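mind reviewing this fold:
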Amino acid sequence: MLFDNFICDIGRRMWQRGFVDGNGGNISIRVAEDLVLCTPTMVSKGFMKPDDLCLVDMDGRPRSKSGRPPTSEILTHLAIYRNVPEADACVHAHPPHATTFSITGVQPPKHVLPEVEIFLGEIVVVPYHHPGSPEMAEAVGAAAPTHRAMLMQNHGAITWGEDLETAYWKMEILDNYCRVLLLAKSAGMGLTEIDEDGMKRLRDVRMDGRP
């Protein structure tokens, strides 16, 4: 199945960039209206094989013969799919720069970089709940319709897209943006915001109209 290899490829890219460590992070793709293919629990994303992947229904129940249980955070992915009909893929990771914002509870500022405004929009910090819990799923699911990139407080980040490549790109854009912000702060430099005319032009090319 093409999706199997694609998920494994994205997992390796996440691991190579240092977005995940140990068995951290998870990936999913909606492959049918009521079926989602996802990564297993307790497996490094850098060394997954197609046979490791799990198929679950929209309640998180296994629907495949994989010998591994699905990621413990599948409920959070499913909440995004239920709340955002156009979302067909989710990526959760612990990228260092974005996670720095998550553990401080600081929301990255808006109106600084055009790429962030076009592809991510506002980045929200979702309050802490136990990873994989129904409460975490509910909080992320509620934020997802108006946010493509979310920081999970004291945890990491999650992004969604219309396809897996797009969802993963958003994770790269998010962490790079947070890295740039931290570099500016460490250098003692202030930020200049894009003016209102510039923001209007960016909003005109933003495809989904989200904040």
Q: What stands out?
A: Residues 2-205 form a domain with the L-fuculose-1-phosphate Aldolase fold (CATH 3.40.225.10). The longest helix spans residues 164-186.
